[in-house]
Design goal:
The structure is a homodimer. Chain A is an alpha+beta fold. Chain A is globular and about 65 Å long. At the A-B interface, helix 1, strand 1, strand 2, helix 3 and strand 5 of A face helix 1, strand 1, strand 2, helix 3 and strand 5 of B. Strand 2 of chain A pairs antiparallel with strand 1 of chain B, so a sheet runs across the interface.
Chain lengths: 335, 335
């Protein structure tokens, strides 16, 4: 497929800033990302900001393989940054996309990635308004950075709002993205799919219902264990997790049992953990359960006064253990 | 130097999202980038935006070598994105920084880079408010993405404002960054230094003086030839460049003569080209000349009614030639 009338593979010329770069931008990026701000082709997008406060974030994505069950690096790069804005209580609005392409990359793979970025952005109501492309030596890989802006019209969420007595809700089963990527790498065939998704609907539904959300985080690298430790430290509380309440899909559980993995340390790309007052817990659970991507949500922990350690787990047989943040490597290039 | 109490080199664990990542962030990024928004350690920074309009941009940096005369990849990553905001008529305010580190990178090199990013940001009056770190396999390299937000309080500049009769001013000699990087790669010893710099002062001085700036661009990858072609196309004009008015430092000129390079196609990292009405040209030239990094500015071209081609050059001996945009490669990984 000779999309660019130049070649079927990315060459160093596509990163020159000259005619080949221009053609790449026009034939691929503009074709799919099309919007007023981007189409002006200036050095920066000019945007209206009808709000005094914004949320602003960035994330780079280096996942391998770049295509996997349930998504690809492009979809991940859009969802990941949108979820980071969302969990701060912002309404995601604009994204930028910076591409680092390795020489030799198939242009049809790049087109596939761009198409799914454009589709995910469209489905989420956001625009990709500025971009950049560089080419490096290598073997056809791709790295994507996205940054994002969201408008804040409500009180921003903050970990310091969390108080003893609060309930902790996770929006669905843990470990799917991690198990999916690892299955691809190990060449294991199964039906485990990445949970890669934008969680806007469930959060909007909570806000619409007037829920007082204390704080919220998306559960990515480092897993739930790491996120809970961070929140416990920021709020000076101890979080006690109930082991038998943690949702894990049966196939992911089998996969973890065989390989000795702990879903509490595994990466997810479409899960959030939400802190609310105990009396709101059932209501929030029901809102999440009736929202897209939330049908398997569960109340999994309660917030206690600070004890010796930030996070503990009450095990199935009633014992208690400490849950540290992830030590060492996890799975390299998981996102 | 055991900065992180973990190792002197970047390992895969630094990209895990767990304890090693936390230590890297706290011991290096927070130490140098310190500010209210970043210190909150949330998934996104919460920022006040006292303006209805913003400029928003992104750029990834893959330059090799990562340290060069006059700067390093970090300084470049800050200046590059700030200049992109500046030339849109915005006041740069906030940056994000996404790091992709190759395993084996010296942590003291990383510290050096972060220090100069922090210093450049401070000197430019901007804050680095959000960041991300990933680790990939490799040989100790680094890629940095920066995105940036600037406030727009004036009429934004736009290429379509350019009209026949306008004058074109370049803020200084061309080709220095390109010649510097190439000298390093070829192991040639000379005193050519990258022009890597943030050009805020000269633009602020123009705005303060009430100049009606038609449009402005920073002259990076693809060189002046490429930028002028883009502006001529956007404004439906033809730009006629006077060859003997184009400033080039003598050492860069010798370097180009020997290697057969054309400064008009070479990358710069601290040069802008500015379009103003003919009657403002001398005044603007003097403002730039008396500003930091502008002492060798020159009026180099005039805007004509659209002819057959977007950009022409009147040569030293009075002939005319066409100046196309950069074809092919330029110098890979120049920025």
């Amino acid at each position: 497929m000779k999309i660019l009338g130049i070649s079927e593979k990315i060459t160093m010329a596509h990163g020159s800033g000259g005619s080949a770069t221009k053609k790449l931008i026009e034939d691929l990026f503009f074709k799919y990302f099309q919007n007023d701000a981007l189409d002006k082709m200036e050095d920066a997008a000019i945007l209206d900001i009808p709000s005094d406060k914004i949320a602003y974030t960035t994330d780079s994505f280096v996942v391998t393989p770049i295509f996997f069950q349930g998504g690809n690096i492009g979809k991940l790069a859009v969802c990941g940054t949108l979820n980071d804005l969302l969990v701060m209580g912002a309404e995601p609005k604009y994204l930028t996309a910076g591409f680092i392409l390795e020489e030799g990359m198939d242009i049809k793979d790049l087109e596939e990635i761009i198409k799914s970025m454009a589709q995910t952005a469209k489905d989420s109501g956001v625009k990709i308004v500025a971009g950049d492309t560089k080419v490096i030596e290598g073997h056809g890989g791709i790295y994507i950075n996205t940054s994002g802006i969201g408008l804040i019209n409500n009180k921003p969420f903050h970990a310091s709002n969390v108080k003893p007595g609060d309930a902790v809700i996770v929006s669905g089963p843990l470990g799917n993205h991690h198990a999916c990527i690892l299955s691809h790498r190990m060449n294991i065939r199964n039906s485990i799919s990445s949970d890669c998704a934008y969680l806007g609907e469930m959060v909007q539904n909570m806000i619409k219902a007037g829920i007082d959300i204390k704080t919220m985080r998306d559960v990515t690298r480092g897993g739930l264990a790491t996120v809970l430790n961070e929140i416990a430290d920021s709020s000076n509380t101890t979080i006690n997790l109930k082991e038998d309440s943690i949702p894990v899909d049966p196939e992911v559980k089998s996969f973890c049992d065989i390989l000795g993995l702990d879903p509490l340390y595994m990466a997810n790309e479409g899960k959030l953990v939400c802190f609310v007052a105990q009396e709101d817990a059932e209501k929030v659970l029901n809102i999440i359960k009736s929202s897209k991507y939330g049908e398997k949500a569960a109340i999994i922990a309660e917030v206690l006064k600070r004890e010796n350690v930030p996070v503990t787990v009450t095990t199935r047989i009633g014992g208690k253990r400490i849950l540290n943040i992830l030590q060492g490597e996890g799975l390299p290039r998981i996102c």
